[in-house]
């Protein structure tokens, strides 16, 4: 369904360009990247790697995630290819075991085995540069490196990457606030180093045709109006539309036609189920943050959030307090934003949470 985005990314990679891919959470970044990797011109000519570094909190963990992904991709390629990588990891060479059945190395590296992450990182990049095929490495939630305690991680990575001719990178993430600062600020190491693409929602007519076809293949009935309602409820945000349609499919009788009434009931059931976790998130915010979040949720998509009109409309404290609250909510990834004609438009990152807030407050 993402033909235009796939074509653009393949062409950019073929032209030796790095890519920055941003989108709201759960819009389909991972699926798009994997789809690009499956295109013949990429699959047949490159080693492709993908890792999500969202769980990482240090350079040690980043090194572990990168090396583990390379290992897992190379294992099926054969012993000669794998050993070339392992032989280059001098800093961790003594920590690999062997599977007695397959006679191949087993990746049993632990964080404690990485004594010099800077050296191991250099060895990883050295392998990628000397690999027998060009490489493409996608690093999802790339903004995490900004939170690492080690100094100059961005500069260290950029120094290695800009010297490479055999590996291209796809930097992906959902925290647009941080990523745009990393790639668009002249003071940052990654400034102007990647072609940028923002993944937006699939057009309604394309998605509804696709969804109806999937139900038909499963011998289930759904009205066009029901699919249209599901799409409109979330303004086409793929994850949420898919989620509500999946739940409606799973929890209705196979002989029943899914209509708008069932879509609305399914949504209510989902919000009730998730309500407790959403309440926990709200309880961790101070009053100004909570009030700002509620105001933006009620707007759906909010612009001019620091204007006097917005502050008065929602009985907020002051424009400066709203701006501070928004910065905190962006850092926590509770809010996201889009740039339209140089105007930032804010919304709640989790669309289910947005609906729950509007129903609760």
Give an account of the 3D structure.
- The radius of gyration is 23 Å and the shape is globular.
- The protein is built from 16 helices and nine strands.
- With 361 residues, the chain is α/β, with parallel strands linked by helices.
- The model has no long low-confidence stretch (mean pLDDT 92).
- Strand 3 (97-98) and strand 4 (105-106) form a beta hairpin.
List segments where confidence is low: pLDDT < 50 over at least 5 consecutive residues.
Answer: none
Oligomeric state of shown chains: single chain
Summarize model confidence as the mean pLDDT. 92
Order of helices and strands: HEHHEHHEEHEHEHEHHHHHHHEEH
How would you characterize the largest beta sheet? 5 strands, parallel
Which percent range describes the beta-strand content? 5-15%
Number of helices: 16
Helix content: 40-55%
Give the strand line-up of the largest sheet: 2-5-6-1-7
Please give a handful of descriptors for the protein shown:
12% strand, 361 residues, alpha/beta, 5-stranded parallel beta sheet, single chain, 52% helix, globular, two-stranded antiparallel ribbon
């Amino acid at each position: 369904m993402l033909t235009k985005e796939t074509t653009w990314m393949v062409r950019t990679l073929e032209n030796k360009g790095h890519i920055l891919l941003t989108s709201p959470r759960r819009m389909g970044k991972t699926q798009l990247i994997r789809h690009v990797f499956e295109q013949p011109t990429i699959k047949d000519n490159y080693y492709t790697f993908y890792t999500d570094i969202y769980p990482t909190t240090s350079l040690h963990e980043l090194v572990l995630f990168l090396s583990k992904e390379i290992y897992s991709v190379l294992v099926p390629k054969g012993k000669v290819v794998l050993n070339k990588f392992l032989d280059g990891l001098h800093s961790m060479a003594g920590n690999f075991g062997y599977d007695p059945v397959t006679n191949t190395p087993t990746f049993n590296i632990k964080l404690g085995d990485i004594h010099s992450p800077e050296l191991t990182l250099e060895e990883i990049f050295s392998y990628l540069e000397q690999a027998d095929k060009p490489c493409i490495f996608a690093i999802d939630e790339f903004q995490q490196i900004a939170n690492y305690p080690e100094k100059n991680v961005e500069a260290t990575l950029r120094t290695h990457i800009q010297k490479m001719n055999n590996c291209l990178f796809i930097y992906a993430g959902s925290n647009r606030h941080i990523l745009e600062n990393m790639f668009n600020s002249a003071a940052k190491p990654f400034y102007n180093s990647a072609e940028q693409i923002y993944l937006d929602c699939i057009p309604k007519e394309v998605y509804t045709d696709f969804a109806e076809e999937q139900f038909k293949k499963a011998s289930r009935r759904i009205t066009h109006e029901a699919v249209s309602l599901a799409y409109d409820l979330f303004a086409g945000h793929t994850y949420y539309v898919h989620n509500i349609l999946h739940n409606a499919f799973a929890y209705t009788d196979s002989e029943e036609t899914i209509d708008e009434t069932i879509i609305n009931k399914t949504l209510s059931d989902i919000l009730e189920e998730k309500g407790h976790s959403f309440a926990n998130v709200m309880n961790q915010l101070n009053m100004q943050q909570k009030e700002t979040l509620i105001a933006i949720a009620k707007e759906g998509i909010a612009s001019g959030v620091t204007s006097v009109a917005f502050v008065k409309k929602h009985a907020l404290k002051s424009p400066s307090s709203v701006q501070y609250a928004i910065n905190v909510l962006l850092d926590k990834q509770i809010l996201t934003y889009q740039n339209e004609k140089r105007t930032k438009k804010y919304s709640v990152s989790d669309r289910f949470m947005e609906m729950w807030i509007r129903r609760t407050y």
